Amino acid sequence: MENLREPLNGNEEYLYENVHDIVIVGGGVGGLATALALHRLGVKSLVLEKASNLRTSGAAFVMWANAWKALDALGVADSLRPNYRQLDGIRGSSNCTGMKKAVQLIKKTKGGLTTMMESRCIERIKLIETLAKELPKGTIRFSSKVVLINKKNPSSLTSLKLEDGQSITTKILIGCDGVYSVVGSFMGIPPAKSSGRIAIRGMVTYAESHQLEKFHSQVWDRGLRAGFIPCTDKQVYWFLTRRSQLQDANISGDAEKIRHATLDMIHDFPKPFAELVKASPAESISYADMKVRLVWPWMKLLPGKANGSVTLVGDALHPMTPDLGQGACSTLEDAIVLRRCLGETMKSINIVQWGEEEEKKIEWCFNKYLQERRWRVFTLVNAALIIGIVNEGSSKLIRFARDKILFPLFSVSYLRHFADFDCGNLKAKYS
Ligand SMILES: Cc1cc2nc3c(=O)[nH]c(=O)nc-3n(C[C@H](O)[C@H](O)[C@H](O)COP(=O)(O)OP(=O)(O)OC[C@H]3O[C@@H](n4cnc5c(N)ncnc54)[C@H](O)[C@@H]3O)c2cc1C
């Protein structure tokens, strides 16, 4: 929505600029889900995405029950579900001790099969395309990298400078711009740090059915974990995580070098690990330094300066290691909760005018949102970090704890704690 409006708060420079009610920086899962959550209740927003089109990198995600509940709330889950297979369970084995464990996500009952926990592996691009398709035309502006953010005083509008020199002004700013968030750094929050671990991912699409069972399969080794998950009958996603090493700098930008290094690391892994890595097209193979920002219970989620009508969603707010497969899932939860918290106040806000009173109301909503997310995010960020360290344990003690104590105790109830969260619905219509 672009308006030419009267000067606001006496700031003459806004007169001839575009003034938006809500600008979202970043057109990934978080940005598009937030825009859709707002749209579903009649609120327009503008999404600024630095890429020239919807980003295809990232191969696939495991989407757990909590994500499907959020996608249900957004009204897109049923268009995705039929295309991706419900996983029957999780299988893990240790190359160090031979320990094996399987956990069923589906169980046989008198009435047939019952799903105990929804879990499907879906292509990242298909998820963001589905979200984007539901947005009104013109909501996403591509090739719009935000390089500078400025806010003169607490109740003034927020100005964004784009890389191409354009300026955009907004009343409300939502940063969904991932781990290197420019909105986060404007808010003064510390940048995400390297967790000291890396992830390699890839995806293969076969011409015929791959015949693999519908299991999330993982193998643990000394300082290393690798897994694969069928997305559809023909598509399989695989990953490997381990501690980062000095020589990683030599392979990180070259898919063929990443492939060779991966094959080297999994040479004694069972079938079909090596086959999947060999069959994956180079463009599907990627390398990522896993980032994290620790969250402690006594901390505010945003430990930077208070910023009124500016907030964060997704990786920008809570970068976490992917060991629980919850980064994107919890990002979808953020979008629903943020919209719900905003919804109650937006009814009473005069969005045409903008001043201290309006800003205070939005700030109240954003604080409520952060308050609601605090414990959930604290649990996920820290649990993922600990699980990652244990999974890739290279010391004898950690491997013993993993293979003899934690691994045997692993169950659906344990998974439910992280992955069966219900973030609720979008609630009342704003008009
Ligand atoms: C190896 C690995 C495996 C993972 N596996 C899973 C999994 O199985 N399940 C799961 O739920 N999660 C998983 N995740 C986490 C998941 O990828 C992220 O949590 C999720 O993508 C976060 O979405 P986001 O929209 O916050 O950020 P992003 O997906 O990073 O999107 C940010 C967007 O902002 C844009 N942008 C950035 N800066 C600017 C700017 N200055 N101006 C304009 N646009 C900008 C970017 O181009 C991008 O499109 C995994 C992550 C990794 C690294």
UniProtKB/TrEMBL annotation:
Keyword ATP-binding: no
InterPro entries, sorted: FAD-bd (IPR002938), FAD/NAD-bd_sf (IPR036188), MOase (IPR044560)
Domain named FAD-binding: residues: 21-346
Keywords (A to Z) from UniProt: Monooxygenase, Oxidoreductase
Single Gene Ontology MF annotation: FAD binding
Secretion signal span: none
Superkingdom field: Eukaryota
Pfam families in the record: FAD_binding_3
Family per similarity comment: Belongs to the 3-hydroxybenzoate 6-hydroxylase family.
Name the UniProt record assigns to this protein: FAD-binding domain-containing protein
Taxonomic source organism: Cryptomeria japonica
Source species taxonomy: Eukaryota, Viridiplantae, Streptophyta, Embryophyta, Tracheophyta
